Amino acid sequence: MENKCVKNIVRFNPKNNFGLTRDEVKKRIKENLVNVDKTNATKSNKEIIFGNLFTLFNFINFILAIAILCVGSYRNLLFMGVVVCNCVIGIAQEIRAKITVERLNLISSNNAKVIRDGKKGKIKIDKLVLDDIIFYESGNQIVSDAIVTEGKCEVNESLLTGESDLILKKPGDMLLSGSYVVSGKCTAKVEHVGESNYASTLLKGSKYIKKTKSEIMFTLDKIIKIISVAILPLGAMLFYRQLLASNYDWGSAVVNTSAALTGMIPEGLVLLTSTVLAVGVLRLSKYKVLVQDLYCLETLARVDTLCLDKTGTITEGTFEVCDIIEKNGFEKSDIKSALNLLTSALNDNNETFKALKKAFSYSKNDVNVVKIVPFSSERKWSGASFKDKGSFIIGAAEFIFGNSSNSVVESVKKYSKDYRVLTLACSDYEFGANDNLPNSLQLMGFILIKDKIRNNAERTLKFFKNQGVDIKVISGDNPVTVSKIAERVKLDNFDKYVDATTLKTDKDIEFAAKNYTVFGRVTPDQKQKLIKFLKQNGHTVAMVGDGVNDVLAMKEADCSVSMASGSEIARNISHLVLLNSDFASMPRAVAEGRRAINNIQRSSSLYITKTIYSFLLSLIFMLISVPYPFIPIQMTLISAITIGIPSFILALEPNRERISGNLFKNIIKKSVPAALTVICMLMVCVGMYEFFNISQYKYSLFTVFLTSFVGIMLIYNISLPLNKLRKSIICFVSVLLLIGITKFRYLLELEPLTFINFAIILFMMLVSYLLYRQFLRINFEKYLKIFFKKSNSK
To answer: How is the chain split among helix, strand and coil, in percent rounded to 5?
Structure first.
């Protein structure tokens, strides 16, 4: 690894027993070669608040609110409540994301043991400088990349690489920051500091706030952008026309123009979306699923490719003993007795030994141990000598018997295709000097162990298969081993595996992403590229992982899922955290995402209908000198009763349908017939106002009633097939609307609902019903292809 920060810097070579001098440390500090990671890709809280408050969307609403305040029409300001809620939600979500990113840190240790000027002591890790002499022993975390100068130690790098095996580090070997010393002691010289450390470079690609891939967000942004571009010139021209229509009554012109412009902005849809997704978050929390990003529920519901790290998802990350194979006349009882003695005597703490200990164990009081030789990655075996019982050794056959015993090695190969094979040997002699193996070793048998598969892993993978989701298993382990595990859970194409060490170029990785299912020996950088190429090929990708080696891939994925039992940093950057570390919770998360998205899509039609007819009405009333048919408080009534209440209730219904089609297109197809019906009926009202000289209050009564009725017809249409709840919503909305129009007519500036007015309204309602049915028969999709061209390309 190249150390960019020390290029062209003179290196010191301090002695292990003296370290750097005070002057050398000062020189390093002056050169800024200190172990401080200054990477920060987030905005300040002030920038976040500023960015959410001062948007074109809010600017338009604030201008309208100020205009209404200036003419004293305070009751028409109710629309600002939704605007404020949207701002608060946006600020809260962005600040929360900022906090999450800023706490990403792989190094948990605070202090380091160093020697300077011949004196040993502890210093804060951010005081370490390049070329410092540092001491490590069992249990220490490597806080800065360093080269071993003296001693030996075994290091666990699984947090970084995904490889579970311990690695022996000798003089000249590199210690990677973020790994842990499991056994032994060593002295090392700091090789990299700050941003050049392996841990920092690994996390550098994840320290940014990534926008969630959300079709809902894209649709809302698209609508708001279209409206924002048109609303200022449209508003100015409409205001001028309303000024003429009201004989230069500035108050009426402001109120009417505000009603038109606020009707065009679907601000309630933003609030609905956030609320529905928040309810989904609460529901999932009951099933031990923590949602850290609201919109990830939508992304997960749309996922067509799911990438898994084997450990923690398909397997539990532990082993289990499957069988015992006897050799040389020994019986299973002999082998079990030997294993009972070993597991009671030894204190090995690796996953393999834990599996043995779970299957075999005596009480320590029953064991009379003479000598113990613990496991090491260099020896690849461990053993113990017992009084009057001889010695027993367990480990890798080639390290116990050497390559000279071809028959033993060949026997191991016979089973190693399907199992991890441990060899058990015995001797009547004790261990020699320097913990050498005893003489006259005799093979007792083999212990076959396997990765422990999660109980419901097969069922969960079958669920995703039935949903049309392609599964990719990406692991740092041996590809053959991973393939065998995939076969055990009946994963399709388990035999299509590749060793990632053979993938030398990006083209190789891209080819592998398209053609293989199982990937072994994958580095963190390769994992990220695999996800990237899958996305480039048009897939929506989710990544499930639990280690630091998964972080880059998880950050690249459209949706990331981590296990609570995994690393803290993986939990911090993931969209979803499975609190019970159970992969079987995933189907519930997918189902909840589908419920939310399908229901939001259905309810969105109500909001977009208002946007369409408000936009078209504004264009029409720019050309005619007739008062706009609504004032803001009337639009508030229509929005609350025919849009707000039903949309929130319908959006919380159960819905397990698979998501299909383009969200924007699905919404528009349902909205256009209702919007055109409103336009046609309001033009009838304009004709009555112009040619029959009806009053402004009667004009408003007819327009409010007819617009609300079309809204109820739309509710009926999107609620099919009807159930008790949906029927109740339609009845409740109808009654509430009638009460609002009759009881609050003074507040709404409406004429009383007399018998004649009611008869006229009933006739026009019949006409609007027939007109709506005709519009529903028209295939608007072919007329909207140009409009949707860009949307489909996304």
So the answer is: 55, 15, 30
